[in-house]
Each structure stands twice: as C-alpha cells, then as structure tokens.
Amino acid sequence: MAKIKITQIKSVIDRTERQKRTIAALGLKKINHSVEVEATPAIIGMVRKVNHLVAIESI
Prior knowledge:
Blueprint: E1 3-8, H1 17-25, E2 34-38, H2 41-49, E3 54-58
Antiparallel strand pairs: 1-2, 1-3
C-alpha cells in the first residue's frame, strides 16, 4: 500500500463531535501536526469526511 501524509490545517473548534473524533482517530492533535499512514480504504474514508480540515500528500 502507498503511504500518505496527512496534515491538519484547520481547527476542530466549532466542529461536530464526529469530526473531532475522526481527526483524533487519524492521530492528529493540533494545527500543522502531520502523520504518515498507509492509504487503506478505512483511512481514505476518514480523510474524505474531514477533507476541509486536512491537507493530503502522497509519499
């Protein structure tokens, strides 16, 4: 599987609880924090739900 780098670019303040939990499940903690993860279907689905809060790069 390919790896992707996910960076949080917006705050989770005033977001739904579901979006906050999705960001936390991706391993993101604060703005400009990045994680590298495998591009599994589950991860891709989570990123799509919060695509307005994150930036994605292929590695």
